[in-house]
Amino acid sequence: APYTFPPDLRAALDRVDVTRCAQHKAGHRRANSVGVELLKRDALDDALACFVASLRHKMDFPPALYGVGETFARRASGSGFELAKLSYEGALSIWPHYVDAHIALGDAWSRIRGDRMRAETHYKRAVDLRPRDALSWEALANNQRERGAHALSIETYTRAIDSIGNGSAGLFYGFARTLRASGKYNECVQKCNKALDIASEYGQAWHLLALCSLDAAGGHRASDADVEMYFQKAVALEPEFAAHHVDLAWHMYNISAGERIDAARDVIAAGKKAELYAD
Q: By CB neighbour count within 10 A (0-12 exposed, 13-18 middle, 19+ buried), where does 152 fall?
């Protein structure tokens, strides 16, 4: 059966001025492609106009429905959640194997509504559909960590690496986050190092390596100087992350018993400047 827009979604899309999209007459694929580029720049109204223009050319085009959902989900106010949900569900009604739509629907339930159990059904479906996709596994394992199911998250990360191999720095970083949350600091250090073996310029992994090294035991515990170097790496690679600066400054202050307070203040000031000029 042809796709039929739910009344609330239809009413919302009918109000969109598609002429805001420069390519609104160029066909469904071109309009959708322009919408994707606009979405990357957070130009939500113009992106929505392009996705709606695409749907007016071809009303059962799942990527355009997905794009509509993304514009509403990013607003997340008023009826944003409901319209995003209807859009993602519409895309899935046409293409049930649309993995990105399952992940997006899970994200909407978890991040906007805080319903992590309902979100998990969509993340699991994404993993079932694309078992070699790191993003699907990460969405599932991250959701489990955020709802406090640390043992389950560890199991999921282990299954993910067994399924897709050792090539994803993001999976090892996510695994390390769960291990730290579980108090498994030595294992956290190991997974951070795995992530950095794959992506040596991964600032967040350097930051997490520093944090876990502070609490690790035995050979996994780094010297204060090494921990400072890890924090400095994170700051140098990702200066836009305020936490990198804050934790480096605190570490410098703490290991010097307050004697390096001026240097610590300089780190905080640099962090504020970087945040001010970040995109």
A: middle
pTM of the predicted model as reported, rounded to 2 decimal places:
0.88
Exposure of 228 by Cβ count < 10 A (0-12 exposed, 13-18 middle, 19+ buried)? Answer: middle
Q: How far apart are CA 79 and CA 73, in angstroms?
A: 10
**Residue 2 to residue 7: CA distance in whole angstroms:** 15
The token duo for 226 is 């090494």
Exposed e or buried b per residue across 233-270, where buried means at least 16 C-beta atoms within 10 angstroms of its C-beta: bbbebbbebeebbebbbebbbeeeeeebeeebeebeee
Query: Which among 118, 95, 72, 135 is positioned nearest to 3, based on CA atoms?
Result: 95
- How would you label 190-216 residue by residue, b for 16+ Cβ within 10 Å and e otherwise? bbbebbbebeeebbbbbbbbbbbbbeb
Looking from the CA of 166 toward its CB, the CA atoms found within 13 Å total 8
Are residues 141 and 157 in contact, defined by beta-carbon separation less than 8 angstroms? Answer: yes
| Residues 101/136, Cβ–Cβ less than 8 Å | no
Write out the two tokens for 45: 């109204």
State residue 260's pLDDT score.
82
7/82 Cα distance (integer angstroms) = 12
Listed residue (201, 205, 181) closest to 191, CA to CA: 205
The closest alpha carbon to 66, from 46, 49, 41, 89, belongs to: 89
Encode pLDDT of 76-130 as tens digits: 666 899 999 999 999 999 999 999 999 999 999 999 999 999 999 999 999 999 9
Q: Please give the radius of gyration of the chain, using alpha carbons only, rounded to the nearest integer.
A: 22
Euclidean distance between CA atoms 237 and 32, whole angstroms = 34
- Could you tell me if 139 and 123 are in contact, meaning their C-beta atoms sit under 8 angstroms apart? yes
The amino acid at residue 240 is E
